[in-house]
């Protein structure tokens, strides 16, 4: 009795499919590792003020590179802004970075305007501008 496919060829094809499926299953089970976003542009000394000239307040802070599980360290020099004075850490986002309180709530979301200036919006909708500070 003749067969349409030679037995060694069929066995090789089955083995190839089995190995390919096993390798794919192993790759699917492996977690994908993505590099951490670059935090360099936001690191440094900053001053935050409300955009509205009628609003008052100033916040001077340092955004540090010190990595934590939940973001990077914030060091306050002085802060009169209610939206920022509770900042516990900062973390990069796809569009910039956010200042976050100890509970993980976003206080102000910032997006880059220039290398030395960022625009931000507080949780209450207040707009802020953050510029590089020479020193405190």
Can you walk through the features of this model?
This protein has 136 residues and is an alpha+beta fold. The chain is 17% helix and 42% strand. It contains one helix and eight strands, in the order αββββββββ. The protein has one helix spanning 7-29, and strands spanning 44-50, 59-68, 71-79, 89-93, 96-100, 106-114, 117-122, 127-132. The protein has an eight-stranded antiparallel barrel. A hairpin with a 2-residue loop joins strand 4 (89-93) and strand 5. The longest helix has 23 residues, at 7-29. Mean pLDDT is 77; it is low at 15-37.
Count of helical stretches = 1
- Helix proportion range: 10-25%
Order of strands, main sheet, comes to 1-2-3-4-5-6-7-8
Straight-line N-to-C gap: 93 Å
What is the rounded Rg?
A: 26 Å
The global form is globular
The total count of strands amounts to 8
Strand percentage, roughly? 35-45%
Structural class: alpha+beta
Biggest sheet, open or closed, and with what strands and sense?
8 strands, antiparallel, barrel
Average predicted local confidence, pLDDT: 77
Uncertain segments: 15-37
Give the topology string: H per helix, E per strand.
Answer: HEEEEEEEE
List the helices and strands and how they pair.
Blueprint: H1 7-29, E1 44-50, E2 59-68, E3 71-79, E4 89-93, E5 96-100, E6 106-114, E7 117-122, E8 127-132
Antiparallel strand pairs: 1-2, 1-8, 2-3, 3-4, 4-5, 5-6, 6-7, 7-8
